[in-house]
Design goal:
Blueprint: H1 49-84, H2 88-109, H3 111-129, H4 138-163, H5 165-172, H6 180-189, H7 192-208, H8 213-216, H9 218-237, H10 240-264, H11 277-282, H12 288-312, H13 319-330, H14 332-354, H15 357-394, H16 401-415, H17 418-432, H18 440-463, H19 465-490, H20 496-520, H21 527-548, H22 552-566
């Protein structure tokens, strides 16, 4: 499953540095900023109030743009469902959409961020400490050494994909009766190999500089491009209009970040010859030894989608579409949960670079608990109200009641793997923030992919799309378990048993809340009213059950609410 709703990812800089909040540690402090005099073991933070406030504001702003992008993503999917339903045309578009989905994961979300956020953080650290060569700005040197080569590499990749579109479609969906429409759409979406790569580069640079809002807004621009082109040209171009919208939206992603990037990040005249000593020193984290494990991990993770669509192409028409609609809605809780890790990733990277493993441990454990609470609350809503959600969002035009029933069933199965997807996204970041080669995440993801493939082949023939979704949940959960067990012994000394116990309590609360919603949802015939009632019922049951199970995250949240709204503090 991929995340296409939002992007992911402290300390003073010199007075003459570029403006904007910094993520670099102040002198004499750890990567989480200077220690607060009032810090205590009870808080478990040790974070400076200024840094804590900045992270809270960054997370809040990211959350707002994430929700807006998610809403526009639903409008986008509604437009495609309305005009093309679950048909051969929508299947052709979704096969072509595999390209930007893979590119988004590799070039915006995981791959580029995991490589470049630590690299820019190191360059900023060198700038702040005065560790320069010949007075050159380390950030400017890093950009000059990497961006031109990246542009040439991505341009060549996009050109090859356009030329090889028939072969790509044949590999992705060999069961299609007529692949020509999918080939046309794939050629239109191939430009995202270039545009997403530049978007990801800009996003990583801005996040390392402490600017989170422009990267969080790229999917707003992306979805607006798809929606606009689909509405304007669907009558003349058919589903090709949506594919063209993908290309237009991806260009808007670059323009969304460019003004802030030009203000914050110093650019230099590009140098295309072989990396010299100074340029290589500017980009020590971007060598092949570090790059290869990240690429293998990201490609293996995104390959779960390829396996799903490969298997679904052998099922009746519409199967790929049912999987897609279910996936896009079910993954929203995961997208919201990972915004926490998006904002704190530079903090963890700085902690690892400074050797502050205890601070990194506290940050990672806190992030896992908070992200787990968000995603499991969303899981409960999906489990309880999947039919109502799908009916409200999609059941109109060519998308009928049978499509709603099939999509809702798949969505409930997908929801069982949401915690696994969230943990894989959260746990992979500390592995790659250490700045040294590590193949363990790729091994864990490859193992999960093999589990997904084996379970998919075993279950698809008998259970259809439900079997494919089940295989996805089993495979990603296997990966999450391996990463959780391996992180504490290899990178950050997290207390894996305590984290697992905390997540199990939240999972119990999620199952109880989901069961309550499942039982009560049919009592209200109107889907809108039923869903509105569920948005009150499910959180209430979730938090009450979490309180009964003594979940630390629930107890902390309720205590915070009481202090803020009852005690006025």
């Amino acid at each position: 499953m991929t995340d296409t709703g939002t992007g992911t990812e402290a300390g003073a800089r010199p007075a003459d540095a570029t403006a904007g909040p910094s993520l670099l540690p102040a002198p004499g402090s750890g990567p989480e900023g200077p220690r607060s005099p009032g810090g205590s073991p009870e808080t478990g933070s040790g974070e400076a109030p200024r840094l804590g406030a900045f992270l809270a504001r960054a997370a809040a702003g990211t959350a707002v743009l994430t929700v807006l992008a998610a809403v526009l993503g639903l409008v986008r999917d509604q437009a495609i469902a309305r005009y093309f339903g679950a048909s051969d045309a929508s299947d052709a578009f979704l096969i072509a959409w595999t390209v930007p989905e893979m590119a988004a994961t590799l070039l915006i979300e995981d791959g580029m961020a995991l490589l470049l956020v630590p690299a820019f953080s190191l360059a900023l650290t060198r700038r702040a400490s005065g560790d320069t060569e010949g007075g050159a700005d380390p950030v400017r040197e890093l950009v000059a050494a990497t961006l031109p080569r990246l542009f040439l590499l991505l341009s060549g990749g996009a050109a090859l994909l356009i030329a090889g579109a028939p072969w790509v479609v044949g590999v992705l969906a060999p069961g299609l009766a007529d692949p020509r429409l999918a080939v046309d759409c794939t050629r239109l979406t191939a430009v995202t190999v270039l545009t997403f790569g530049i978007t990801g580069y800009f996003s990583a640079a801005l996040r390392a500089h402490g600017s989170f809002l422009p990267p969080a807004g790229v999917y707003v621009a992306y979805n607006l491009g798809i929606i606009g082109m689909t509405l304007a040209l669907h009558a003349a171009w058919g589903v090709r209009a949506a594919a063209a919208g993908v290309a237009v939206g991806s260009a808007l992603m670059i323009l969304t970040q460019l003004p802030v990037l030009l203000r914050l990040v110093p650019l230099a005249r590009p140098r295309l010859p072989r990396l010299g000593r100074r340029a290589a020193r500017s980009a020590p984290l971007l060598g092949f030894a570090v790059l290869a494990p990240v690429v293998v991990f990201v490609v293996s993770r995104q390959s779960q989608v390829l396996v799903e669509r490969f298997l679904a192409s052998t099922l009746p028409a519409g199967a790929i579409s049912h999987l897609n609609y279910a996936q896009k809605v079910a993954q929203m809780p995961m997208v919201l949960s990972l915004m926490i890790c998006t904002v704190t990733f530079p903090v963890v990277a700085q902690a690892m670079a400074a050797g502050e493993h205890e601070k990194a441990r506290r940050r990672v454990e806190r992030d896992l608990g908070l992200a787990g609470m968000v995603v499991l609350l969303g899981t409960a809503v999906v489990l309880g109200y999947a039919p109502q959600i799908v009916e409200v969002l999609f059941q109109r035009g060519a998308f009928d009641a049978a499509d709603t029933a099939s999509t809702a069933q798949v969505m409930r199965v997908y929801a069982l793997g949401l915690l696994g997807h969230c943990l894989v996204g959260a746990l992979s970041r500390p592995f790659f923030s250490s700045g040294r080669p590590t193949w363990f995440p790729a091994f864990a993801m490859g193992t999960g992919l093999l589990v997904t493939m084996g379970a998919g082949y075993a279950l698809t023939y008998r259970f259809g799309v439900d079997g494919i979704a089940t295989a996805n949940a089993i495979g990603i959960s296997s990966t999450a378990l391996l990463l959780l067990m391996g992180l504490g012994t290899r990178v950050v000394p997290i207390r894996a048993r305590d984290v697992a116990l905390s997540l199990s309590r939240l999972a119990g609360a999620s199952l109880a809340a989901g069961a309550a919603g499942w039982a009560c949802a049919p009592l209200v015939p109107d889907p809108v009213l039923s869903l509105a009632a569920g948005c009150l019922l499910v959180p209430a049951v979730f938090f009450l059950t979490g309180l009964a199970l003594r979940s630390p995250e629930v107890l902390s949240l309720l205590a915070l609410i009481r202090r803020r709204f009852l005690d006025g503090r």
